[in-house]
């Protein structure tokens, strides 16, 4: 008999938490130091989803500058240092997250986080938001040596959280999450309030929700299927 609970795996930036204000502030810290005008927080939509290095590369590319190699690594270290100093100053859980976790927990679900943030920053953010202890595993871009959308990522998170691939669902806001789930043949619910330049409904998720109040029904219908 299996004792593994059904598992709900959450993306972090743009899914569990609205973090664009702090991420864009840290990006603007490095851009401004290089004499580049700050980017508006609305631009997060086109810049976030693939992790901090991608954010920096895309942020510099807006003004036509190509950043790679050791320069990228230096900027990434400075970005992370700045970001971690104000990690939840302008960040908050999206409405209904806590209530949804409590309802699903009462129904026997367990939870994990799979993000392309660094693991340390992810844990620090979830601690600051008061929810870290609710997750059986908090996995970041540097946790396994591969990351979303690599097909191995979600199975690795599931193994760490003590779940099974057959009874897991991914919740995310971007093409990266939807591709990671499809690559691992795991059903995926997209939230439509996160960071994506293309509407998530066009990216082929199994369900789309606009509020966490709709999460339970979406997850249960996918696991029953
Ligand atoms: O912020 C990013 O670029 C990635 O973070 P996410 O995987 O939690 O969305
Ligand atoms: Mg995201």
UniProtKB/TrEMBL annotation:
Record-given protein name: Phosphoglycolate phosphatase
PANTHER family per UniProt: PHOSPHOGLYCOLATE PHOSPHATASE
Keyword vocabulary terms for this entry: Carbohydrate metabolism, Hydrolase, Magnesium, Metal-binding
InterPro entries for this protein: HAD-like_hydrolase_sf, HAD-like_sf, HAD-SF_hydro_IA, HAD_2, HAD_sf, PGP-like_dom2, PGPase_prok
The keyword Lipid metabolism appears for this protein: no
Function text: Specifically catalyzes the dephosphorylation of 2-phosphoglycolate. Is involved in the dissimilation of the intracellular 2-phosphoglycolate formed during the DNA repair of 3'-phosphoglycolate ends, a major class of DNA lesions induced by oxidative stress.
Pathway: Organic acid metabolism; glycolate biosynthesis; glycolate from 2-phosphoglycolate: step 1/1
Binding site for Mg(2+): 11, 13, 173
Pfam family, one: HAD_2
